[in-house]
Specification:
By secondary structure, the chain is of the alpha+beta class. It has eight helices and six strands.
Length: 233
């Protein structure tokens, strides 16, 4: 429940089983990871007692925060989410001044509120800090299963937009709102593991875990080479 509204995750498919949404491909990919992952464990003779696989995702959402009145004074920002004309900023992102300086008070208030609101819906935010470009910031949650994490990211952006308006601020989630300085990324830290606690991409302290880690990286590299167009789209 968020803002007195009950959010129910849904998947949409046709009568013939074809997906017409973005959630179903993700769920099907997680099922494929389970099938292939259990086959791999059996083939290498490690963790054969596992019954299921989990896809884990930890997103890092970057964004810009600016006063709402300045945002509304720019029709290009309002309509496109980015600037289309104008002079490059006098102050760029030289050095590390922006990244390591204290978070501005109004932005800190917004981040604190967003953190509290996200905790109410079961998504603890672990990180909040400045980013490299002026006016740029980032928040990240604790790792969760991939489908739940994707839902949380959408909820987070809604929460940020809603709470920013109350404070006279505007949040820009466009990947490149301003020329001449860094854009905003949505980094995805992805991993897979078993229901018994084995992480495929953690070498561990034993020869068996190191063997599994190398094997998993080799499988991932092969998959990226074979299906790289899916990663780029």
């Amino acid at each position: 429940v968020m803002d007195k509204c009950l959010y129910i995750p849904c998947a949409f498919v046709t009568h013939f089983g074809k997906c017409i949404d973005e959630k179903t491909p993700l769920l099907r990919s997680m099922d494929a990871v389970t099938v292939s992952g259990l086959r791999l464990l059996k083939a290498v003779g490690i963790g054969t007692d596992a019954k299921a696989m989990q896809s884990y995702l930890g997103w890092e959402q970057e964004f810009f925060v600016m006063p709402a009145d300045l945002y509304k004074a720019r029709p290009d920002l309002v309509n496109c989410g980015r600037t289309l004309f104008g002079k490059l900023p006098t102050r760029h992102q030289q050095g590390d001044l922006n990244y390591f300086q204290p978070i501005p008070g109004s932005v800190q208030e917004l981040l604190d509120i967003a953190q509290a609101e996200m905790l109410k819906i079961g998504c603890p935010m672990a990180v909040k800090h400045n980013e490299v470009a002026p006016g740029q910031h980032e928040m990240s949650p604790v790792f969760r299963t991939a489908n739940v994490s994707c839902d949380s990211n959408v909820c987070f952006m809604e929460v940020m937009n809603r709470e920013a308006q109350k404070l006279g601020l505007q949040v820009l989630f466009h990947e490149k709102p301003f020329a001449g300085i860094n854009g905003s990324g949505k980094h995805a830290n992805w991993s897979i593991g078993t229901d018994t606690g084995i992480n495929f991409f953690y070498p561990g302290k034993t020869e068996a875990h190191a063997k599994l880690c190398v094997t998993a990286i080799a499988c991932l590299a092969y998959g990226l080479a074979q299906y790289n167009e899916m990663v780029r789209c």
